[in-house]
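User: Fold this; tokens only.

Assistant: Input:
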Amino acid sequence: MKPSDRLSALSAEIERAQTELRILEEQLAFQDDVAEDARLRAIVAETPLADREARGATEDAERTRRLRDEVAARVDGLRAEQDRLLERLFEQPSAGDR
């Protein structure tokens, strides 16, 4: 694959990953609110059911947080690959420089 083709593919992949990351961040904000509400209900209710619901909501938020972190790391890795490829392209002499 030509470097310019790989750059185009990387750009598209970064864009998709960033969209996924934005969605996960919105979901995480919502799940954090749900977990906090459940935690407060568990404190007030002092029942085993409320405690289970709070734990479940917290676990859901943590799963989403881990997934968000994985996608963020993937975006960082893709950007690093893009940077390396750009550096290689700019280091290579063009046909007119020979």
